[in-house]
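Journal club side-thread
Mid-discussion, someone asked how the predicted structure for our own chain would compare to the paper's figures. Pasting it here so we can look after the session.
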Amino acid sequence: MKIKVAGNAGFCMGVTRAVDLALATVRANSSKQVFTYGQLIHNPQTVELLRKRGVIPIDDIDALPAEGNKAVLVVRAHGISPSEHARIMEKGVQIVDATCPRVRKVQAIVRKHSRLGYDIVVIGDVAHPEVNAILGYVEGRGFVVGSLEEVQSLPPLAKICVVSQTTCSTEDYKDIVAQLRSISPAVVAFDTICDSTEQRQAEVREMARMLDVIIVVGGKNSANTCRLTRIAAEEGALTFHIESEKELADISLRGNAKVGIVAGASTPHWVLDRVISALNRKAVAGNKIGSMFLKMVNSLVKTDIITILGALVLGLVGATLQHSPLAPAGLVAGALFIFASHTIIRISSRVANSSVGLIREEAYAGRRVMFLSAGFISLSCALFLSYRLGAAPFFVLLAITGAGLVYNILHHLPRLYNITALAKVPIVALVWAILLTWLPVGREFVLSWTALGSGMVIFSLVLLRLLIADARETQSDAIVGKTTLPVVLGRRKTKILTGGICVSMILALLLSAFSETTRALLALPFFYLWICENLYVSRRREFTRELLEAVWDFAYLIASLYVVFAYAS
């Protein structure tokens, strides 16, 4: 089975902006209730998550509390009419306008041409909230048509201004405008279909012509998602509209089928990711080699075995950079401690909602005691091995353990949550750097510029890898209320930060090669992660999240090339 994922699948600009504004409103108004007039987006999973964050959808303005100064209402991307805006203001409720800029453009066109004496024709769904909001800006006569047949029922119109719902079908728009021009010589038509909508529709048409099956992911109440489903079916592809990966169990697909996955503008990426993962499992079900490979990758990632391997390699890098004899017990102690701390912290602070939670949720489900036991046993072994190395390594590890416990306690205090959450990734990278610089050389460790340089390489590589992973989850982390550096900085600034780390470390390592040629090889994992983020992996939407984790962690294994060549020379 061949799987192709549409490049334009997932949240559009308007939906992303509306969700971001709603979450920012919740954070800025802790003493007020936050409402949305109607569902913020047409996706039941996201609406429920937003409700848990404090964003409450209402269908009637009268449902707002009587004491308006204790409420904030977020206007969704579809917009509202001027009369509805006035009713909300009368209640004394603060309004946060998340109307999509493209919808506002349509509203402005309608108001202007209505005042110029034009009759307004809106092409779209008469029951859609966006269309109702647009009609609210008509100061004369306004009509809604959704088909060629409905054009025939229009009364005689002298001057016509035509606009469309931003998620309207491009083919329907063209056909209806042509029909209107045939019955009236004075037609001014504005193609107000959103660029994102046009791109999605064009892409689904092309995919439906090339592929056997199209799976459309998104809410059953989403107009643009339903329209994508209709377009795919009209092009002749076997089409299924699903809301979650669970519905794939009822779909039978041929082993050699070419399957396309598309998603509406209201479909969050984590729903899409789960569908992609489930479909990949379905694709390799009859292929022993493919199935074994996928299971192996999933197991390595979900059980953190790949983390242990990465820690072992970076420990070897740390010892080699310091030109010190390797202490195998210290190397193992560092890797076991990292495994233990990751496992214990992840289980103790796991996201409650499994629909958005960590990819390790499935591995943890029903095995919490087993994983916690493995974590504490690994921690005990790490402490024992460090004790055998000497007092200094033992007390360093003990101090880090204590600091970790304090951090975990502070992390659960509401007032300190944001601070500890922001510090998490730099702290994790720093712990890796300290452990994998000190423990692998044991008693031979000497605090020097060489040791600091070794620690900086490990710190930067781990920090970069963690930031790239967190950046991909910015959307879901923000919705479930998880604070991370990418959530605070935003995707653009995070990308600048990760790019800066890559460039500075690559240049530093290439310059250090003048004193030791093999050090240039350590620039490879940084360059590899940059390629993954900017050129290749970010565009390979067919990758499951587990496979992405494995691809990112492979950067640690690439660093082993330095160890091999350093020993060979």
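Post-session note: The first strand starts at residue 2 and ends at 5.
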